[in-house]
Amino acid sequence: MQVALVALAVAGSLSATQAMAQESAAIKKSARQSEQNQTTNTETSTVLAPIVVNGSGAVDGYQPRSTSTATRTDTPLIDIPQAVNVVTHEVLEDQNANNLDEALGNISGVTQTNTLGGTQDSVIRRGFGDNRDGSILTNGLKTAIPRSFNAMTDRVEVLKGPSSTLYGILDPGGMVNVVTKRPEDTFSGEVYGNLSSFGGGTTGVDVTGPIESTDLSYRLIGEYKDVDYWRNFGETKHWLLSPSLKWTGEDTEITATYMHEDYSVPFDRGTIFDTTTGRAVNVNRKIRFDEPYNITDGKSDLFQVEIDHELSDNWKLGIDYSYSRNVYSDNQARVTGYNAVTGVVTRRADATNYSTIYNHALRADLTGDVEIGGMQHDLLIGASYDYSDTLRTDMLRCGNNTNFNMYNPVYGNLPECTTVSASDSDQTEKLSTASVYVQDSVHLNDQWIVVGGLRYQYYDLLAGKGRPFKDNTDSFGDALVPNAGIVYKLTSDVSLYLNAAKTFRPQSSIASAYGNLKPEEGISYEIGSKFELPAGLTANVALYSSDKENVAYNAIEGSATVLKTAGLVRARGIEMDVAGSLTSDIDIIASYAYTDAEVKEGENAGKRPVNVARHTGSLSLAYDMGEIGSSGNTLKIGAGIRAVGDRAGINDNSYDLPGYAVVDAFAAYTFALERPITLQLNLKNILDRTYYTSSIGSTAFGNQIGEPFNATLTARLKF
């Protein structure tokens, strides 16, 4: 609450800038509404309509228009020979998205995979992905941050298919780019607070604007969260502070952003599936099988600098740098066995103390818009360097214990582990990469665009563990990674495209590995179509086929986790996404995907990869009812459904996670005051379904459970 009170004080002291704030406020759907009613009083509509704090020229309400993620230049989506999906800020705000999984529930072909007990972002795209695959970026750069979605987030962009030519080491499924809020040149802000039906809530502030008589603008974001965990014990806590500063010169713009977050989250592996029945054990979903000390505590820091300089009318230089660090410790009572008849659960107390992960990322891009041979060329020439370092210092390991019964749980009989395992400690992974790349988008005429690119990638990798230290991976190498695509524009609003691209990803094993872990190599082919309808609707359809060789996976042998390779994994499918406005009052974001993924070679040949759903779909609608009565107050309502089909729960496919559908709804009522106040109620999992979002894959003892019905009431003051 202290953050909120400070923000209210700031708002009160800035009354002198009130007129400027009102004048600069961005109004949702203003363009469409002005077409419908040319006689609307401009001054009145500015006061009564919601103020958008996070405006962006790349989006309009629910509709994405352009992105720099795919080509690293601000390119209309219709001109990109690759599927790109965007979850805009307005979608995130309407749905009250609390994490990356909820945001990505709007995107086709994306499902959750092993989140390490809910402590890390981890998603599958087009059949590929894991929790340490480097596919989740912040502002286009890799980081060490475990959960990238937070109060800084403005929108989420998903680039489908191979993206290694521009972004380096990635899977064929694509990448997720979390775009953060930036300093604005006009003053605006908001203070918000919410209460959760689970208990507790969140409060925060977001203020941005120019610094008077300077070329500087700023943004300050702060948030404090303390929410009870929905199962029988635990709570989620964090506080975040993020200042940012932008300097704008005649030809140069420099933006610097810093974030610090302290967090404490439950380390919850979920429930057990009985492989003899193929179902979850018959225990209330709220009953945990671990201990109250199952917690991950940590601190994260992120510092990013972006420099954009116009060399001339046609050439620009961009330099981006990111430093990130995550320091954490965790404790857990790990399930290692169970007896479904007696209910006895075998557990082992483990812990990780003093773990540090940090990452440096540096990139320089030279972009040019030039004419060569009578044709327009959008050129990109660049170089990048990344270095990541992981050190898990003390690994604590204790023996098995059978003093817990899932049918009559009593906690506190398994103490925290205090025994350091020398052979398992000092787990280390160091990866450095250096690359140069080039890409050219050639506009042959008004209808045809040809895109080609090539990346030279060098890597140096070291991984191992133990006291004394033993390296299990010590390798280096290089690769050429190409991509090619064609766009044919049937009209200015409809395009057809196809592309082919490769991926490359060196593999490491901190633990013992079976044989030489060759780099993963992938290739993907995609054909699709994109539409931009006059009403404000963007849609795309894509068919793809992707192969990835030398795929690594974790397996349990005895009491040890070892790394193996699956040989060849293939994923094929079709995806459809729609986002934008059906009318001036009704917004939509919807998706559907069919994914046929299979292990083609290796020990699990013929099996489905873990956590990959054949069918996924979503539909969300929002209706802006406008003014209610004569007071000028407004009401917006909406509802949505997310559906995920059955998924393999374990590598040998001995059980499946059942499919599910979750229904959500919201209502937002805005009071037409001098500074608008919005009360918003979000209802999630209205039908209170029991469902399972992902599994760890190597055993049947860790299957994440989705949240039950919950309600959140949010109050938001904008100024």
From TrEMBL:
Keyword Transport in record: yes
Signal peptide, first to last residue: 1-21
Main location: membrane
Example of a GO MF term: signaling receptor activity
The TonB-dependent receptor-like beta-barrel domain, residue ranges: 246-686
Highest taxon listed in the record's lineage: Bacteria
Membrane-topology descriptor: Multi-pass membrane protein
Keywords for this protein: Cell outer membrane, Ion transport, Membrane, Receptor, Signal, TonB box, Transmembrane, Transmembrane beta strand, Transport
Family: Belongs to the TonB-dependent receptor family.
NCBIfam families reported for this sequence: TonB-siderophor
UniProt-recorded name of the protein: TonB-dependent siderophore receptor
